[in-house]
Each structure stands twice: as C-alpha cells, then as structure tokens.
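quick one: protoporphyrin IX containing FE bound model?
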Amino acid sequence: MCVFSMVTLENIGNIFAGFEPGSIVGKLEMLFSGIVNGIRANPVDIPGTAYHHGLQCRKNATKMFREVLEKKKKNQDATKPTNDLMDGLMRVKDEQGQQLSDEEVLDNIVILIVAGYESTSVAIMWALYYLAKYPHVLKTLREENMALSKHKNGEFITSDDVAKLTYTNKVVEETIRLANIAAIVNRKATKDVEYKGYTIPKGWKVMLWVRYLHTNPENFEDPMCFNPDRWNVGAAQPQRKIDLSSISETKGRC
Ligand code: HEM
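yep, here:
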C-alpha cells in the first residue's frame, strides 16, 4: 500500500468515524481502491468486472461503518462522548427537525472518504515530488512553517493558522494545478447550449478537460514550470473560476 494513501486513510478514518490508527487501515485501503476503480469502470455488473468488484467493496465498506454506527448508537449516553464526523451526521437535523437516516449517514461517510482519500494522497505525493525538484520553493516553504512551529511552542496548529500560511497555500494551489489531481469535471446539459458555434443538446454529458486549461499557455505563463508565486495577489492571473452554469444548473463543490 502506498504510504500516502495509508496516512490519509488513517487520518480520514479517525476524523470521520473514530477508527484507531493502524487497526483496519489495510482493509479500508483495499475496499476504497476497489470502489474508486469501480467508479472509473464501465458499469457492467457481472462477476469479474471492476464495476462488480467496486459494488462488492462498497457493500463491505458500508458494513464496516455500520458496525461503528451501531456501537455509537448503543453508547449514546456514555461518559466519554466522541466527536467525529459520524457523530455530527447522526446529530444533524434539517429545517423540519428530521435527522438523517442510518443509510444517509453511511452514504455520506463512504462518499466523503471516496472523494477525499485518493485526491489528498495523490496531492501529497506530487507536492513532495515538486518540492524535491524545486529546492528554492522547499526552502521558502520550510521557513514559513518553521516560523509558525516556533510561535506555536509545541501546540497543534489550527485551521486559522493554516489560512495564515500564505506561501504554503500557494504551493498547494500550484501542485493541484500542475499535477491535475482532478483532471476532469463532469456536467449534464439541462438545456440546449450554444458554445463556440456548436450545439450541445439537452441531456448530453459534458466533460471539462481541466488538464488542458491548467497547461494552456493562454491561461498560465510557462505552464509546465512549478511556480507558486504565480498565485501572488495582483500577479497577472487567468480566471480562477470557470462558469459552468450555462451548461448545467447542478453546482458541484469541493
Ligand atoms: C487535493 C484534493 C482535492 C481535489 C483536487 C478535489 C477536487 C474536486 C473536484 C474538481 C470536484 C468536482 C467539482 C465540480 O464538479 O464542480 C470535487 C468534488 C467533491 N469533492 Fe473534492 N477534491 C479534493 C479533496 C477532497 C476532500 C479531502 C474531500 C472530503 C473529505 C472532498 C470531497 C468532495 C465532494 C463530496 C465532492 C462532490 C461535491 C458535489 O458534487 O457537490 N474532496 N473535488
């Protein structure tokens, strides 16, 4: 198992469902890579296909989280309450005061792990690759982080601290751009759309090729160069927001 997947899953498993690091991470990794392969496969549900395997993995992953959920329900009044994402989802109520069903809680946990674990581990891997290749970036990054660490005096960093790490945030932006962690975004046309002389008929699926946008010299100067400073405020910038509202009313957000 890749070390970055392991670290990411250990953390996500702990934050989302209170899994103790180490215990079942290997099993979770196998299940979630099966699910991810199934999502990417042709949807042919017969034994032997990646899609069928993905569905089986999803069932088994849900079963593991269901066991945790049942335990949480039995210990609701325990003296040592936990406060992970599953607890939050079990508590949350809509405007009518309705709580999520068990199935909804489990679906949310599984989808968040699917969306979060591979993207994060691949991003970490590419960040390390670029830092090794561009030592001056690593130096600046290290200085910013060491200054924070000194200031914190051994305490954990908070999300407010992370927001203040301006150079580190630019390194993250640049890694996501150049490594194209999410290379495509999908939409379905909710009406006929005219685009550059072409008609996209209602109901067609549209795939936005983000890799092309990220490496196009019209959008980014010297696009294949890893340069976090291109994200400086005030630097000549391409549009960071792509408006897909003319194609689909569905808003995707990460
Ligand atoms: C480097 C890390 C990540 C990248 C590059 C990334 C990228 C993306 C992209 C491009 C989309 C599609 C947005 C759209 O359709 O407009 C997306 C959706 C999503 N991401 Fe991420 N993501 C990352 C990490 C995460 C993490 C850590 C989580 C959760 C723990 C997460 C949860 C989601 C969810 C739930 C969606 C679906 C949102 C929706 O359809 O409304 N992502 N992500």
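DSSP finds nine helices and four strands in the chain.
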